Amino acid sequence: MAETTLNLATAWEAIADEIGDKPALSLAGQHTSWTDFDDRAACLAETLRRNGLKHDSKVVLYLYNGPEYSEAQYATFKIRGVPANANYRYLGDELAYILNNADAEAVFFDHTLAERVEVAYPQCPQLKVAIQVGGEETPDWAISYEDALAEEPMARINRSGDDLWFLYTGGTTGMPKAVMWNHDNIFGMMQSTFRSLGASLPETPKESAEIARRVIDSESEIRQLCAAPLMHGTSGITGMATHSHGGLVTTLVSRSFNADELWGVVELEKITMVSIVGDAFAKPMADAMDEASTKEEVRDTSSLRMIFSSGVMFSDPVKERLLKYCDVSIVDALGSSEGTGIGNQISSRSSGKSGTARFVLGPHTRVFTDEGKEVLPGSQERGRLATGYPLPLGYFKDPKKTAQTFPEIDGRRWSMAGDYAVVEEDGTITLLGRGSVCINTGGEKVYPEEVEEALKELESVRDCNVVGIEDDRWGQAVTAVVELEDNVPLEENTAAGLQTDVRKSLAGYKVPKDIVIVPKIQRSPNGKTDYRWAKEIAKDFLAG
Predict the structure, then answer these.
(1) pLDDT tens-place string over residues 407-439
(2) What is the DSSP secondary-structure string of 130-189?
């Protein structure tokens, strides 16, 4: 397998020197050239350096999609720091957890999130600087993004492929954990991208620049629209890959997904690749195309070559609806924060239907039983998906969970995030899902325990279970089964009131979409939650 010791920042610097006048970023039709992308990141890097950040300093990106996300990440790479994503839906205490867990010394944040950062800041004594993106006024405890850009560009330095990038994931249990990827293995995730461009992974800055020049001159570069959040691996990883061969990364202006805007950007920017998260994005995209067709409006999608999705179910009927309007390859990728390239399903007009949750295994993927035996095709045994390359170093500050997720089998280290599958006779796999109660709603992972704890803090709640109920658009909908205190009367608006109250302590996507009130929560004899019972109760209630 190919390996590299190249650093992302060093590769991008070489690319900027080679194709500096070409666009690296865009938003609403406004472009940032590679020269300006590199210069702006260098100015931000100098701001970080002057505030005491250095090699291995952690920088949390609490930002919406936009050029600033990519610039801040690049700046962090330049100082050999470690960028770490933070969900912009997190409230103050949730953000404080990420900042402290990451040992963050700096945070970039959107001005609309300033109040949440102000709540978190006093809880994070290790923070040295906070940089606000946008807004007419900047709090006295922060630096404006424009002021951060006013520094002289930081001088270039030598770096290593061992430098890190953190990808926070909810995982399957407990609080979010940072998956530690080094640059060597991030480049390893890009093998298929470079292969599609007729190139091997670059091993030196010069090779990076040469590949970018060749790709640009042949007009085969990827022009990527990151519709999914850059804070998630789906757009975050693929966006870095696009930049690593000199391509363009663009995002949407809207803070909530707008399918009409997406198709407009595809047309305006001659987008070749769109990154999304399953049906939560694809259904509105298809709906928008249906509506345009009804109005006899024509959307120009002739530049589009690929729709890339990962992170949640992407159903076959929705793929067919999109293919009716777009002659593209739909790549439904199976992976996780702990390992990419596990498998994929490629759909196109010529390939015919391939089913939902059916994947071709990647070259470094196997399926193992819980006892560590490889599952044979056609055996109908259930096993856990495992990938052997590329691999992260593990979870930051969590050696126990690292050992569980990255076991050694027959002398080789594997990543086993918890997805179960059956290997069919033809070698493809049918994905069964996580072997846990983690809820995946629109690509967001929600831990039942966290929602339960928030509900139980309400005076009116005696006990509760939180489960994921299948949902056509979101994959799963967070649903709570609640037992009230004896002195609390059950009224028509009780459930709505609980939703309103719990919203004060949880990010919106964690708030139960439905709450079912029951006389008594059923638990197993040892007191553990009976999620199967709770799910059946919730399904029966919603069906009725």
Answers:
(1) 999 999 999 988 888 899 999 998 766 656 678
(2) EEEES-S---TTSEEHHHHHTSPPPPP----TT-EEEEEE--SSSS-EEEEEEHHHHHHT
